[in-house]
Write a structure and sequence with these properties.
alpha+beta; disordered C terminus
């Protein structure tokens, strides 16, 4: 059939246009492929709590699940993601950084961690449970804090994902989050205490409204419009469980195989003879064989032999099967197989560099898109506001325009060198060629350039006062006899 066009000529409509993608077909291979069309909110509504419970159970009991979470937290946070003020005034910049360092030791409302420990705990909650809630808790000046503000980390169960409806003010509530008419987050409806804790005080645990300015909501949105996060292990939970059961079965089979037993077979030695009360055995001196011990030499009769049991072993494909399954789990968890399993067979430093560079790119993406954007930057802004309001900092013009003071560069812990000599030489050549700056190289390592320069000056002054000279001194490096001889 021809369809008319503007030019009067026709074209043939390709047949089976709707099935141009094999994945959209309804043939034999896709006959049982039934999927839903749930939106980003509905898809996580029904099984979210089940996913959290199973993820936590796996982390508590499965070594590979626990290793995934530990390694993700260590690589994303490490010793902490640290802010470096970008204000042009060096005096104000130093004052901000000094006060920040004092406050980080007091930031935890529970009094157990510093700010960077809270970063690691928030990351663990995000990967294990799918999200983490942080409540900003202003404190009275009488407590003597460097800045009267503390952070309280909360699990996602305190924000009921099944609370939906309309608030008394007309705002829409979806998955415990209240949105105003402009579609912005206006409040969070949260339980006063964790619904999974049994306190036994008889009080009623009902959600209460908290302004959105008090709550930081950390999660990784995987679809536009997604409101709640899902555990990081969701895609591999079932595989982890199945693999753990298989491994337990193989381990039990090996235990049975180690418990081998021997059986003595005796050949008949003629007829029995009549005896009062029944038939008597042909060998009245028969003694049962005792248990075997290492080095035992047991003499058998002329008509006796020993037959051992032959239980099944683990099989020859156990190692390859486990390797393939762990590789699939590593892909689903976003970890290199070598990092997850510790298996470095047939791996050289060049292949390792390629693997780690790909992994680090994903880590850096999540560091800045989630942890810096949703957590670190918002905490820093609230901290600056409270520092100015409490008089801990005097920042001229902050109330009128706080942006110059809020410009920070967040620096994660630096990556360890894969090949220290070559990597340092590459950084040195990049700086000399103008492709990078000393500041950029130092920040890439997770250090503070100003601190490095101050320490270098102090080292040089102390060495000069003591009459010492080292290759690291600039003046000594210009007339280094070792380099001249080379």
């Amino acid at each position: 059939m021809r369809y008319p066009t503007l030019s009067g000529r026709g074209f043939l409509l390709p047949q089976r246009l709707s099935n141009s993608y094999d994945g959209a077909g309804q043939g034999r291979r896709a006959a049982n492929w039934q999927v839903g069309n749930s939106g980003p909110v509905t898809s996580s509504l029904a099984g979210l709590q089940t996913l959290r419970n199973r993820s936590r159970h796996a982390v508590r009991n499965d070594p590979y699940a626990s290793g995934v979470i530990d390694k993700l937290v260590a690589n994303h946070i490490g010793t902490g993601i640290v802010p470096k003020s970008q204000h042009p005034d060096a005096t104000l910049r130093a004052a901000i950084q000094t006060l920040w360092q004092d406050w980080t030791e007091e930031s935890d409302a529970d009094g157990q961690l510093d700010f960077y420990g809270q970063q690691a705990l928030a990351a663990r909650a995000l990967f294990e449970s799918g999200e983490c809630l942080v409540r900003l808790r202003p404190r009275p000046l009488s407590q003597g804090l460097a800045v009267p503000l503390q952070l309280q980390l909360l699990e996602p169960e305190l924000l009921p994902h099944d609370k939906n409806g309309q608030a008394a003010n007309g705002n829409l509530i979806r998955q415990g989050i209240e949105f105003n008419r402009a579609g912005q987050r206006a409040a969070y409806w949260m339980y006063p205490r964790h619904p999974g804790e049994q306190l036994g005080d008889g009080s009623y645990n009902s959600p209460q409204r908290l302004a959105a300015e008090q709550i930081l909501h950390l999660y990784e949105p995987l679809r536009p419009g997604q409101l709640r996060g899902v555990p990081h292990l969701s895609a591999v939970l079932l595989r982890l469980k199945t693999l753990d059961e298989f491994d337990d079965a193989v381990l039990f089979r090996q235990e049975v195989a180690n418990l081998f037993a021997g059986f003595i077979r005796k050949k008949p030695q003629g007829p029995s003879y009549p005896h009062e009360g029944g038939m008597a055995p042909a060998e009245p001196d028969f003694q049962p064989m005792v248990g075997l011990e290492p080095g035992t030499m047991q003499e058998l009769g002329p008509d006796e032999d020993v037959q051992f049991s032959d239980p099944p072993d683990a099989g020859n494909n156990y190692d390859e099967f486990m390797r393939q399954q762990l590789s699939a789990i590593a892909v689903g968890a976003g970890l290199p197989f070598e990092v997850l399993s510790g298996d470095l067979r047939e791996l050289n430093d060049r292949i390792l560099r390629v693997i780690l560079n790909e992994f680090r790119r994903r880590v850096e993406q999540r560091q800045y898109a989630i942890f810096v954007q949703q957590f670190c930057r918002r905490v820093r802004h609230a901290w600056l506001d409270m520092a100015v309001l409490s008089g801990a900092l005097v920042l001229p013009g902050y109330a009128r325009n706080p942006r110059p003071y809020r410009r920070d560069r967040w620096v994660p812990q630096g990556w360890a060198y894969i090949h220290p000599v070559q990597d340092v030489q590459a950084d040195q050549l990049a700086v000399r060629a103008g492709f990078a700056s000393r500041t950029g190289v130092i920040l890439k390592r997770g250090d503070d350039p100003e601190t490095i320069d101050q320490e270098a000056r102090q080292d040089q002054d102390r060495a000069a006062a003591l009459g010492l000279r080292f290759d690291s001194d600039i003046a000594a490096a210009q007339h280094n006899p070792i380099e001249e001889q080379a």
